[in-house]
Amino acid sequence: MLFGILAFIALASVFGLVLGYAAIAFKVESSPVVEQIDALLPQTQCGQCSFAGCHPYAEAIAAGEAPINLCPPGGENLIQSLADLLDVEVLPMDDEEDSLQGPTVAIIIEETCIGCTLCIQACPVDAILGAAKQMHTVIESECTGCELCVAPCPVDCIEMIPVKQTVKNWRWPEPQYNANNKEAESIFTTLDHVLAENIRP
Amino acid sequence: MFLAQSSPFLKPELSVSKMMLVVTMLMIPGVLTAIYVFGYGVLVNIILAIIFALTFEAITLYLRRRPIAVYLKDKSALLTAVIIGVALPPLAPWWLTFVGLFFAIVIAKQLYGGLGYNTFNPAMVAYAILLISFPAEMTTYWQTPAMLASQFEGQTLSLLETINFQLFAQLPAGMTIDALTSATPLDIVRTAVLNGSATIDEIHAEGNAFGMLGGIGTEWVNLAFLAGGLFMMRKGLISWHIPISLLATLGFLSLLFGSFELDSNPSPLFHLFSGATMLGAFFIATDPVTASTTPRGRVIYGAGIGALIYIIRTWGGYPDAIAFAVLLMNMCAPLLDYYTQPRVYGHKADERDDEEAS
Amino acid sequence: MSQPLPASITRTIKDTLRHLWSFPGGIKLSGHKSLSNHQPISTAKIAKQLIIPLSQHIGHASEPIVKVGDKVLKGQILGYASGPVSAPVHASGSGTVVAIEEHLIPHPSGLSALCVFIDTDGYEQWIECSPLISDSSSTDDNQEAVTHRSIATLSSHQINQQIANAGVVGLGGALYPSAAKLNTAEKMHADTLIINAAECEPYITCDDVLMRQRPEEVILGILLLKKVIGAKKCLIGIENNKPEAYQALLNTISGYNNSHTDAQIEIVQVPTLYPAGGEKQLIQVLTGREVPSQGLPMDIGIICHNVATAAAVYHAVYRGEPLISRIVTITGSAIKQPQNMEVPLGTPIRDILNQAGLDENKVEKIIMGGPMMGFSLPSIDTPVTKATNCILVSEKSELATPPPAMPCIRCARCSDSCPMSLLPQQMYWYAKARDLEKVQDYNIFDCIECGCCSYVCPSNIPLVQYFRYAKTEIWDDERERNKANIARDRHEFRKERLEKAKQAKAEAARLRKEKLAKKKALDAEQAKEKEGLSQSNDNPAKSSSADLIQEAIARAKAKKAQQQSQKKNTDNLSEAQQKKIDEVNERRRKKADSEEI
Amino acid sequence: MPKTEALNTTEEISSTEVKPSFIEEYAPIAKDGLWDNNAVFAQMLGLCPLLAVSNTVINALGLGIATMMVLIISNMSVSLIRNIVRPEIRLPVFVVIIASAVTAIELVMHAWFHELYLVLGIFIPLIVTNCAIIARAEAFASKNTLGKSFFDGLMMGLGFTLVLVALGTMREVIGMGTLFSNAHIMFGNGMQWLTIEVFSDYDGFLLAILPPGAFIGLAFLLAGRNYIKIKQKNKKKRQKQQDLKLEPGIIS
Amino acid sequence: MKATILRNMMMSAVLLAGFGGLGTALVMMTFEATKEKIAASEKANLLKNLNNIIPPDSYTNNLLDNTLVVPAASQLGNKGPTIIYQAWQEKKPVAVAFSVVAHDGYTGNIKLLIAIKASGNVSGVRVISHKETPGLGDKIEIEKSNWILSFNDKNLEIPARQKWKVKKDGGVFDQFTGATITPRAVVNAVYRALDYYKYNEKKLFLDQAKYDQLYGSTSQ
Asked: E136 and B139: CB-CB below 8 Å?
């Protein structure tokens, strides 16, 4: 009986030594998961997640302080890929109304702009050009649609317009019609209807 | 609003509904033969099965809030029902069919997501569940085949008497269930082999198990299903891979082992033309939803079923093995699909050689 | 060209009949070709207003060089090629430019693009054409010899320049600028020219009638193409359901083959099996070789052109005419007189439908291209472009309005019929789940969108649309990712800039403070000197705090340096991303190539 | 002694600030263990013994109680030592504790519930590997006080036992048509009267007793739970929507 | 750095060893405390099983004390020695109990415990273990069916030798619906046991020492 206990103690000590060594020697410093999350975020730096930008939000997610569904620009797809990355459950978008809009860009209505540079200071990606007392303009290709410039404008000359669809960035719609879909029938009738309308001379 | 709809615009040549219907139609020769051999019980089974199947399907579709008409029209439940109807013992009581169809349609099919989403062949799930739950009923209610009955002056039932027995468990006066039924050839062989009580030759001499090709009576049913299956293959409804590899493996194994122990191993022909071999090879194993989909995967899938049939028939606890073999291979199908992907055009040839050249 | 064939030639040709390979999958379709391939090619009336899109090809849209109000002649250049992969656009009728604005174009999206509107004057006045070789069709006698000698005298660069100027693009459907393609082929020393005359899609007959009725244009065009590339071999692949076209080409070739062995052109009948006319499939059938995935036919020494492209090359070189018209098949049971029509580009489709007789009561669907790969037109007010090979107007019973898709039953008919040996059933699951990575693992970018899978699917699942959807989603994702990376860089840069500014400010403030402190200290010292040494302890403390600040600055600087070095990393990363973008572009181009059916 | 004093004072401070009532503190633990975070329903832990031994109510009860005992013991011990163990040897120590508790319980059962021990067989030692136990040690006991840990072990064990018994009831009634058969092996011969024949003359539905029946039964239990959860969620949503509808009125 | 590692290692080792020792000690203590009770329970269980087939009021000795180990015999179907439990009323032999194995079951061996009265009649039979098909062959268990009781008071003469078969084979014992092999195997095994008893009647009531002396030791 005593021998059993002693043997067990000896064994436990050995494992204890090994574990005690491993705990310090093989310590992993910090998790690169923040960067992985950051790479998925849309980088609009819009702050709609209530964090100061995409990277802070990524840090918060990694630390488990923020849910994954706070990013309207990333939409459902982002939630899905974050859920895949972190192996957590997919959550519905936090604020459903916002997620419905497509991507937008800001434009400055040139007649109204007074050249106050407030929007330039607000832009997180330096996508607005202009100098004091001069008309400003948005570099459309660089604009992330974060809307941060809209509020500071004293004359309300900035508008968000949807990104223009062209043949180049057009995407095939996902097929909608399947037998489980009660609307299937109506979609087909719409389709026929549309075609018929176009044919009429 | 313009709604983009993608090509192709040609009318599709086939629909699920048509496919299922044709397959069901091609089972008719086999079904008729089975009715001739095993009496009206088979017919009653099938009709009961169809009624139960459609009812269960409609109810579950309703509960799942799916369009009932659309899915009832796909006729997959019909096919499942007919397969179960043929597979059940001819004199099975009605509640056996009822329980079977409940498990087939509700549990194995609809709870998995309905047509196309079930991992396991519904008919075989039903059969396996019935077999392990009600082994006595599943093995005893086999009416003596017509050939044997006439030979040994056994009794048969008329259609009305059959219905009366199956629905109300009432036999005409003076008849016992023991006199009506007899063990299936596979059962006889299995028992004899196990007990070592009789050699194959002795069973031959007794004349109540072996027909010309396979089991007495069942050989004709198998031949009829073979004919239907071959027609189906010719029509391109099923590919050759699964049935051929299944039958080849089963034949090969029985030949191989048969050549070692002639006394206790029946011939390959017996294995191929007894039990539900042909039904299984052409109508059950080829169920598209649960089978492997790649060409090489299908060959392995068929061969696996063939091997399992032989193994279970010879060393297993139940006489026939189609259901278990099919279910076991159903489990492997996704894996097979993954590991037997054909080489895509233009990709490096070192992975796999071009197999589907035709 | 219709002289009887000498027996010797027939024999040599028969002798050289090749061994044919086969491709996996494929489906048999009823052709519906006899609807339209018996009538001679008619000519479309010039429309009152031509709408000429500036982008009728793959690559950059051409830049307009005319202004509203300009008078243009037929064949005059409207837009010049704006990059290495681009093609000029020409006026297909004389008249006045009335507008340059967006208009619906024939595209599955139903979106608009920039078009030049020309009100025609009806005079059809040509600009001065400058052919490279004078057309000698009038002098029937030694035509072959003259032509050949003429071709031989031209340099391949000369011919290619002419082709480029004429705005010739791949007319099989890919619309890749031919000159650019020929250029690459020449550089990569492609040794085999394959002419795609298979035309495997049902209903379409424009290539068929072209070969039947103008075989010499095709053959001369081919000779020119061959000359440009310097190819040793030339194969024409034609489906065996077009015996007349085959015979016509054979008759024409025999003359050329006879006259000069260098001109060896082989014409090969391939079995009628859709999609035998797919570029990759045709190459496989004719040579047994496979175009590597993500690669081009040129990687295996092959270049593929369509017969109509060859004819366009002929027109450019022999007549000096740019590509301003093309043969369009107008067919379908809702058309009263199905036919092939030579249509000036930019003609509204409504006009040619009216000319062919549109049975309005019957019309159900109007499709541009074939029923397998075409798309339903958003409107019939869209113009005919270089891509318009067929207008199919169907009646109700003719084509399918797809019934609701049933669930996939994994019958594998799709993978059995796939000419690329893909697994559509798997790609469908992942495309539906929008698992874009998995879709790519199943090689979605090898899909040629031939439509076989959708056609054979008993569940009527719009598989091809799922794949197109997945592909465009993947491209979109890549675009988004690139944009996000750029945005991240810019954001980092901005943060850094702000930080710098802040530091500069702080530095300035500190300096100011220090100065002040020094001054004070100095004053104090002067005052203290009188008081004695007791307070000298203060000084070291002060200096130590100054040290601390100094240290902090050093740290900040080091951090900045680190950040900068990090920035370099991101630069590298973005380069990798740039590479990815390039890859995507490459893939897109290749995909476009493969569409040439 | 000044040390303890300091401790006392801090405790007092925290307790004077917000002292949650006993129920407030312990009700969530109970709800967690019994429903919200049930070992089987929510965490899907300990399924192996669950599926193997739930063919009759008595078996289920036996294993359930054994598991509950282990849970309570391990939770309490872990909670007691939670401040001493270092993170790197945390798991081995927990495992040692659990294994000791299980072995002790096994020996006790062997001695006093011999027949039950024979029926449950291998599944008693297997309690060691029941992830539910180490999960609770890790997730709860190592962070909470003794009292709470004890209560959590009790509730988790109770939750596990209840599911086990529910499954056992289903399987026994459907499979054999009886309830509490073999009651004597647990409660002694005097309790044989407890056995109830639910259906007389019942042939039995073997599937329910065989392993596949356990899976199907568990699936139905889970489906039932999900159904209830969805119902609750929908109700909450509707409530929220109603609240929202009321809001604009207040604002205007 | 090194010192911290060393310290950490020591701490972990001590802690783990401490808990290991504690746990083991606990187990050891329980083991010691329950050892006797476990042995007693096991004995009681065995006795209970034997009492099912030998009425406890028919004998006066302790069955577990009067045992005899006999060598393997073909009739018993076992490969190793078998334990014979003897029941005595004072000095009068009452019955013996021993196990028999049937090898011809449907799926594997069936192990039976059989008690035979001194008169040669079956006192009782129970199935100890089997692998027969659930629902078919498992009716040989007393929990599933009373069939196994049909052997009680049968002997080699009643029924007659050729009637020691299932009904299907022309005997007197019922078979169950759907299964003949299992009951057939059990009937055979019981018959063999009776046969064995008849053959060794005298030997089986000897005590171990006497048996060894007469027939050689079995305990090698």
From this structure: yes
User: Do E130 and E148 meet the contact criterion of CB atoms below 8 Å apart?
Assistant: no
**pLDDT band for position C571 (cuts 50, 70, 90):** very low
Q: DSSP 3-state assignment of C51?
A: strand
A58, A37 contact by CB (below 8 A)? yes
Under 8 Å between Cβ of A199 and C366: yes
H or E element in which residue B110 lies: none
Residue from the list E8, E20, E34 with its beta carbon closest to the beta carbon of D96: E20
d(CA D120, CA D130): 15
Distance between CA B20 and CA D23 in Å, rounded?
62
Domain count, chain E: 1
Answer yes or no: do E24 and A15 touch at CB < 8 A: no
Q: In what order do the strands lie in the sheet with C89-90?
A: C63-64, C77-80, C89-90
In chain B, residues with a C-beta closer than 8 Å to the C-beta of E136 are: 135-136, 139
CATH architecture of structural domain A33-98: Orthogonal Bundle (1.10)
D245 touches chain A (CB under 8 A): no
Alpha-carbon gap, residue B179 to B177, rounded angstroms: 5
Structure tokens at B330: 């159903």
pLDDT band at E167 (very low <50, low <70, confident <90, very high): confident
Listed by start position, the domains of chain A span 33-98
Tens digits of per-residue pLDDT, A120-147?
A: 888 888 888 887 777 788 888 888 888 8
Residue E146 lies in a domain: yes
| Interchain CB distance below 8 Å, D216 and B107 | yes
Q: Are A106 and A143 in contact (CB under 8 A)?
A: yes
CA distance C398 to C202: 12
Task: Locate C202 and state its tokens.
Answer: 């049902």
D86, A22: Cβ pair inside 8 Å?
no
Query: Using omega within 30 degrees of 0 as the cis cutoff, is the peptide bond preceding B8 cis?
Result: yes
Per-residue model confidence (pLDDT) at position C311: 93
Residue C582: pLDDT band (50, 70, 90) is: low
> Does the residue E27 lie in any domain?
no
ipTM: 0.79
Identify the closest residue of chain A to B2 by CA–CA distance. Answer: A194
Q: Do D206 and B133 touch (CB under 8 A)?
A: yes
Give all chains having 3 or more CB-to-CB distances under 8 Å with chain B: A, C, D, E
User: Is it the case that residue C553 has pLDDT exceeding 80?
Assistant: no
Quote the CA–CA distance of E189 and E111 in Å, as a whole number: 9
Q: Mean pLDDT, to the nearest integer, of A36-56?
A: 83
Asked if residue E50 is part of any domain, the answer here is no
pLDDT at C586: 62
Residues of chain B with C-beta less than 8 angstroms from the C-beta of D210: 132-133
Check pLDDT > 70 for residue C368: yes
Kindly tell me if the per-residue pLDDT of D116 is higher than 90: no
Q: What pLDDT does residue C7 have? A: 45
C-alpha distance from residue E92 to each of C142, C247, E84, E194 (Å): 135, 116, 16, 20
- Residue A94 · residue A79 · CB < 8 Å: no
Q: How far is A32 from chain E (nearest CA, A)?
A: 25
The 10s digit of each residue's pLDDT in C169-208 is: 998 878 889 988 888 888 888 888 999 998 889 999 999 9
Among D43, D85, D89, which would you mutate to test the A interface (most chain A Cβ atoms within 10 Å of its Cβ)?
D89
pLDDT digits (tens, 9 = 90+) for E35-93: 899 888 888 888 888 888 888 888 888 888 888 888 888 878 878 888 888 888 888 88
Tokens 């989403």 belong to B117
Q: Domains of chain C by range and CATH?
A: 139-320 (3.40.50.11540), 402-528+570-597 (no CATH)
Measure Cα distances from C166 to C89, C214, C582 in Å: 8, 20, 28
- What the block records as the tokens of D46 is 């300990």
Q: Do A194 and B2 touch (CB under 8 A)?
A: yes
